[in-house]
Amino acid sequence: MYDRVNLFELGIACDIFGDDRWVASDVPWYRLSLCADAAAVTVDRGFALQVPYGLEKLDDVDTVIVPPTDALEQVPPQIYAALRRAHDRGQRILSLCTGAFVLAEAGLLDGRRATTHWTECDTLARRYPLVSVDSRVLYIDEGDILTSAGSAASIDLCLHIVRRDHGAAVATQLARHLVVPPHRDGGQAQYIDAPMPVLDSTNLFADTLAWLQEHLDEPVTVEALAARSAMSPRTFARQFRAGTGTTPYQWLVRQRVQLAQRLLETTELPVDVVAEKSGFCTAANLRKHFQRALHTSPQAYRRIFHERAG
Q1: 139, 17: one domain
Q2: How far, in Å, CA of 137 to CA of 188, rounded?
Q3: Residue 112 to residues 123, 130, 138, 158, 243: CA-CA distances in angstroms?
């Protein structure tokens, strides 16, 4: 950490990775360590925060989380050097919000896609021209380096990490504990100009999505969804994208992939049956979408999470 670290995103990381009270005893949770090049830092709200570990602690961790700051000039050079060493060792590094500026200053985002808070994306792109800045997304996963947009998107990225490490069921349980949506895809828009109205039980659109959640294994068309919402297909598609930042088709595929993840984690159903129950119809179609969304195969995904459960 460093002076002027943002308290909100720091709290997100501490709450998600440092609190294991809700975790089942058979789930090996993370061990969180706060480190800096000084014994204390000043947070953005003006008070001092004691830091128990020095930068040498980075030698012992698997994942490095870089919180945001509104004063990049107060980040000491030792931080950049420590981050470069961590990257050279193959450690996973993720930045929350404007923590992307710290990674960019360290040279770790050169030649990569990255994001940050939408109000800061132009500045990030201008200051670091070798970085491919994408202001349209909530977070970007490049494998060893991950970046997130502002505030709530930091929660999305942290949940994505948990989902990668422990599977969809554990990530959904954590989201329920935090009282947040279980998944917002990284490709969803950061800033939605015309948000959907609150989707209570009287809203036709809410009823449509609730119905869709229960019928993911059935053939679905935009025309049928529009009819359920009492809209024309064009109006339905426009309002859906305005409210979610994605298309009905992309939303449906993401929901079906998540259902397939849960089935692979919690059942012994053959892959072709998982494909049918999750709405992909064939194992080949499931493999195509699974690879596109998660960069792995259904069989490899099941093997990983069955081994962890064992």
Answers
A1: yes
A2: 5
A3: 16, 8, 16, 20, 29
